[in-house]
Amino acid sequence: MSTDGAKNGSRWLPRLMGVLLLLMGLALLAGGIKLSQLGGSLYYLIAGIGFAVSGALLLAQRRLALGLYGLVLLGSTVWALLEVGLDWWQLVPRLAIWFAIGVVLLLPWARRPLTGPANKANTALLSLAVLASGACALGSQFTHPGEVFGELGRDNSEMGSAAPAMPDGDWQAYGRTEHGDRYSPLRQITPQNAYRLEEAWRIRTGDLPTDNDPVELTNENTPLKANGMLYACTAHSKVLALDPDTGAEIWRYDPQIKTPVGTFKGFAHMTCRGVSYYDENSYVSRDGSPAPKVSDAGQAVAQACPRRLYLPTADARLIAINADNGKVCEGFANQGAIDLTTGIGPFTAGGYYSTSPVAVTRSLVIIGGHVTDNESTNEPSGVIRAYDVHDGHLVWNWDSNNPDDTQPLAPGKTYSRNSANMWSLASVDEDLGMVYLPLGNQTPDQYGANRTPGAEKYSAGVVALDLATGKARWNYQFTHHDLWDMDVGSQPTLVHLKTKEGVKPAIIVPTKQGSLYVLDRRDGSPIVPIREIPVPQGAVKGDHTAPTQARSDLNLLGPDLTEQAMWGATPFDQMLCRIQFRELRYEGQYTPPSEQGSLVYPGNVGVFNWGSVSVDPVRQLLFTSPNYMAFVSKMVPREQVAAGSKRESETSGVQPNTGAPYAVIMHPFMSPLGVPCQAPAWGYVAAIDLFTNKVVWKRKNGTTRDSTPIPIGMPVGVPSMGGSIVTAGGVGFLSGTLDQYLRAYDVNNGKELWKARLPAGGQATPMTYTGKDGKQYVLIVAGGHGSLGTKMGDYIIAYKLAD
């Protein structure tokens, strides 16, 4: 029996749905054909046909459309489950739109105008499909893919901190001490009372981005607490001394940075991660040994500036400042400053300076430098220099291209060009007499045919230098013949570890590639096994690849990417991401760069970057925030590089590589809608038990609140750029996520205890200290990160427990 449908009913709804389904089906069909030609999933081709025919039937007002749509929706549900299981965030782009359309088609206003046989099978099939997809959505709310739940179960390991002593309430170095553990012995704030944290004070530095600045202007500063004051620096290298209880400004120093070209726009980036503190009296009672000999000029500096800050500026100076009053220590070097361009040779404005705090020892100030990536094959030296902490004279220099000659460079001479550099922070063990350098590689990053023997030996690893001579004591390379920008950006962490063979002085080096290398810092021998694994081969013409790469048994690597792991906000951009994936070269981690375009995962930002990790030496627990973001690199033969092509940043756009046969185009692996092509989560917080080297817990971290046009905080787990800290009270703090929050976590189980909304991006590492009032404070710089697109600002904010 047939029916003509509702004679007077409105037919606009089924027709509207018909048009939408027809268009969406045709779009899936077109993309599905392309994907199938690349060897990808046939789902989009088949579903495209089904949805398009369903749309045509709706336009024809045929009731059969309901049954056909239900069949395609049911098939889509089964396909989605087979691909990703009950993973909510992966089910959303696969099923959400089709589920919503199914619900609309079940409405009486959509069904009644339809004609055809008046049986209930079509409606029943559609109802079953909607219920099935809805049940999947419901079931996915009780699963936690990618997360690990557990508890450490101890507050003490019978181990103590081996870091240099200082007052418990101080934070005297970027990583609190030169061991870089980011651990505070303070314990007022605990998992039981962290919810009571409230803002104690906030100030604005007045240092905001200008039209004269580069895109990648960042506020990555971790202030110090020493000498009864807080010391912070801004992106334009200004230093502020603040009252720790109120934030009131005590003094301010402005180095008046300049550039010979009159603008900072050409800089790859501009930041000041911190200043370094030195107290003449801090070494008197440390070990009872006599103080090293000091020159007359050095003695004058010691008397005039007994407490000093060392400031690396964006115009390549190192300035000594009186920590008491903010005046320049005129007796240091040349009227208080060292010109770091001495011996460096020519470079473009912004192409050389130190973005990170110097390492300070009893007698030395040790500094590396930023060298712009992928600019040319004739960049400044990556030399590491050690200056006398008192009078600023050069004591030794270590250049990876000339590693055996550490005598101070003669006047008028220059260091080797284009040697591997250290742009991040060194760590120091004065008892062993060594400084540990996390090294980058010889630019350009993706083409290494012309690298020197020194670069091939020392780059992308850690090098231990003798403090007295600057000679290399040992080195361990983590990425051989690095073609993926896997420079070591994390400050190494020095800690004593309890092992089966007894207590060992260890160095933990987090890396972009996801491995945490744990070595005996006396000689560089592995404490946790490191395996050489075979990797994909086949570099561009003229280059080569290493046959194996080093992987630590302690790592936070995710699984290799697959087509099924592609994501998107909708089925359509997910399909386009699948097409992109199939068009790129990808054979797993360390897929070589190619003219075809290669997928780099983990990407240039890395699993770990300059934020490093924090380690509780008492609990023997490592607390961190790993990231998982893929990048694309495409090698472009020199003759094909368009005139006037410009880079967007050091990690995005056309990188010129002048002097090499290839430029490279780099960008994050994103969908046409601007969301990552790989499925979330993209960022976690995690803890590792250093007794067992196992992950205790791993939780998704952060929301999309500040990453989408609509400020909805979807808890997908977003990337973070900035470090964590951990306290004796059992609370860890982190603020680097793309959403603007400072968060507190229970380090025992990963539970989020508290969070505070920030007025700008918090891409910095927090710190904690004791105020003059005896209260524990937690402090963060919230100033944003230009290239990440977080909100810019100039805030320093402190929190403490409510009374």
UniProtKB/TrEMBL annotation:
Molecular function GO labels: quinone binding; quinoprotein glucose dehydrogenase activity
Any single Pfam family the record assigns to this protein: PQQ
Signal peptide boundaries: none
Chain ranges passing through the membrane: 12-35, 41-59, 66-82, 88-109, 121-142
Domain named Pyrrolo-quinoline quinone repeat: residues: 171-778
Gene Ontology, cellular component aspect: membrane
Keywords, comma-separated and alphabetical: Membrane, Oxidoreductase, Transmembrane, Transmembrane helix
Superkingdom in the source lineage: Bacteria
InterPro entries, per database record: PQQ_b-propeller_rpt, PQQ_mDH, PQQ_rpt_dom, Quinoprotein_ADH-like_sf
Cofactor: pyrroloquinoline quinone
Coiled-coil residue spans: none
NCBIfam families per record: PQQ_membr_DH (TIGR03074)
Family of this protein: Belongs to the bacterial PQQ dehydrogenase family.
Name of the protein in its database record: Membrane-bound PQQ-dependent dehydrogenase, glucose/quinate/shikimate family
Organism listed in the record: Pseudomonas putida (strain W619)
